[in-house]
Automatic annotation (TrEMBL):
Molecular function as annotated in GO: ATP binding
InterPro entries for the chain: AAA+_ATPase (IPR003593), ABC_Ni/Peptide_Import (IPR050388), ABC_transporter-like_ATP-bd (IPR003439), ABC_transporter-like_CS (IPR017871), Oligopep_ABC_C (IPR013563)
Name the UniProt record assigns to this protein: Oligopeptide transport ATP-binding protein OppD
Keywords linked to the UniProt accession: ATP-binding, Cell inner membrane, Cell membrane, Membrane, Nucleotide-binding, Translocase, Transport
Compartments reported by the entry: Cell membrane
Ranges of residues in domain ABC transporter: 6-256
Sequence similarity: Belongs to the ABC transporter superfamily.
Organism per entry: Paenibacillus allorhizosphaerae
Membrane topology per record: Peripheral membrane protein
Signal peptide (UniProt feature, chain positions): none
Length: 265
């Protein structure tokens, strides 16, 4: 039987608001197997990002987990100390968010970002880290990685920065990659290239991916299975072809009908 890498069990998240407690995520359960790509779709505000942040241990202070467990292999992440969770983040669970610019310090070169991240999590010498950084930058399709490492974030386009973020995430060979709208800010051609590279890297390294998107075209292209989230709950989960051919839930049917999506050819 396939082994689960990540298991989310009966997750309930609420936030405190001036009007009182508000439920945001309601009894969400799913699991991810090694190398599997699980898509998470749903309208804006349905709770997708909150679910990702909970897995990363990065919920903001006003949000709290009311109930549930999140297991990475055998360890319950919700029971880990903050210092241990910092080490899990990056090394075992990596994340790629929508806005790459906010992930970079503008005063530090690209090379410094990649090399320091590698050396924080693994016992590499500077030289080894530099070589690996160049390898991963090249693998995400970035030309002239050595030259690129001397540049600052503002000198790169959004698409290039997103590739750098993917290179950083994948160079640590995480067990799980959480990608929250990773290509939304890019034009269609760049989206397709980047998705292909992410797919290939995950396949090669057997990294499991939770891929969040409001774009069903992206999900159809990438995912093995899809979960549909509406108002904090998972309303349907199915293999990707099955969900597109035979959507069961009225909300899924509505999403499919409303789908402009990108045309992935
Ligand atoms: N601090 C907060 N206080 C009150 N409500 C919040 C807070 N943070 C998030 N929410 C609400 O939680 C809900 C879920 O937000 P979340 O960001 O997870 O949605 P999402 O599905 O990722 O949406 P999007 O696709 O727009 O990113 C939204 O209705 C949002 O308004």
């Amino acid at each position: 039987m396939d082994k689960h890498i990540l298991r989310v069990d009966h997750l309930h998240i609420s936030v405190s608001t001036p009007q009182g407690k508000k439920k945001i995520v309601n009894d969400v359960s799913f699991d991810l197997k090694k190398g599997e790509i699980l898509g998470l779709v749903g309208a804006s505000g349905s709770g997708k990002t909150m679910t990702c942040l909970a897995i990363m241990g990065l919920l903001q202070e006003s949000a709290f987990i009311e109930h549930g467990a999140i297991h990475l292999e055998s360890q319950n992440l919700l029971k880990l100390q903050a210092s241990r969770m910092r080490s899990v983040r990056g090394k075992e669970i990596a994340v790629i968010m929508q806005n790459p610019m906010s992930a970079f310090n503008p005063t530090i070169t690209i090379g410094h970002h990649v090399i320091e991240t590698l050396r924080t999590h693994r016992p590499f010498s500077r030289k080894e880290a530099r070589e690996l950084a160049a390898t991963y930058l090249a693998r995400t399709g970035l030309p002239h990685p050595d030259q690129l490492m001397g540049q600052y974030p503002f000198q790169l386009s959004g698409g290039m920065l997103q590739r750098v973020m993917i290179a950083i995430a994948m160079s640590l060979q995480p067990a799980v990659l959480i990608a929250d709208e990773p290509t939304t800010a890019l034009d269609t051609t760049h989206q397709v290239q980047l998705l292909e590279q992410m797919h290939r890297l995950c396949e090669e390294q057997e990294t499991a991916m939770l891929l969040v998107s409001h774009d069903l075209g992206v999900i159809a292209y990438m995912a093995d299975e899809v979960m549909v989230m509406n108002q904090g709950s998972i309303v349907e989960k199915a293999p990707v072809a099955e969900l597109f051919d035979r959507p069961q839930h009225p909300y899924t049917r509505m999403l499919l009908q409303a789908r402009p999506g990108i045309q992935l050819v």
